[in-house]
Amino acid sequence: NAGVMQNPRHLVRRRGQEARLRCSPMKGHSHVYWYRQLPEEGLKFMVYLQKENIIDESGMPKERFSAEFPKEGPSILRIQQVVRGDSAAYFCASSPLSNTGELFFGEGSRLTVL
Amino acid sequence: AQSVTQPDIHITVSEGASLELRCNYSYGATPYLFWYVQSPGQGLQLLLKYFSGDTLVQGIKGFEAEFKRSQSSFNLRKPSVHWSDAAEYFCAVDTSSNTGKLIFGQGTTLQVKP
Asked: Which residues in chain A touch residue B32, judged by CB atoms under 8 angstroms apart?
């Protein structure tokens, strides 16, 4: 059973470009979470999605950031017009339908904004 | 506001020595509590969790943690550290009824001396 798959693992963008980060949850998992880890900090919750629904986006910046988890395909975190402060590791996690409270994390996507 | 504090940013112990990593949380009720470990360049792996019941919980890799309500603490312990335990350790709480929306501490980096 493959784990949570994130791609790309590393992404370099120039200021003003768009970044798209993808996450395929573990098989059978219908809950997806995105967290951001800034340098020297712990992870910060961004958004919680189920298929075709955003359940909680209280941690998402109000502008430039969006997330989706379509009926088919991976979850996508999209950052428009990136700025240097967006440089971070973005982690996706998933959990099964019968939520045990345990999150299964991917290896992260590391975004560098030049 | 809910918060998690890990007072020690870096800890160095000798291989074979005992280990205790501290974690304190701020929350009115009893939260769901977790310890995760992150190896360099990797995602997070769950070590153990506490929901209710016995306040001493056993996890993987020989780790255990004790929930102390009076101290709002959930310290992680291991009787004998191995070199492979060198990593970053994160304490986290879920205050929203086990939904996976976690609040993480800043992390403690463990170095193991031979």
From this structure: 101
Q: Regarding predicted confidence, which is higher, B96 or B9? A: B9
Share of chain A above pLDDT 70, in %: 94
Smallest Cβ–Cβ distance between B100 and the set A44, A91, A99 belongs to A99
Q: Do A91 and B43 touch (CB under 8 A)?
A: yes
Which residue type occupies B21? L
Per residue in A17-58, pLDDT (tens digit) is 999 999 999 998 889 999 999 887 789 999 999 988 999 999
Question: CA-based angle B104:B12:B76, to the nearest 5?
Answer: 40
Pair A105, A93: CB distance under 8 Å: yes
Q: What is the dihedral of CA B44, B47, B51, B54, to 10 degrees?
A: -170
Peptide bond into A8 cis (omega under 30): yes
pLDDT in tens, B60-85: 999 999 999 999 999 999 999 999 99
Residue A98 DSSP class: S
Chain B contacts of A45, Cβ < 8 Å? 101-103
Cβ-contact A95, A45 below 8 angstroms: no
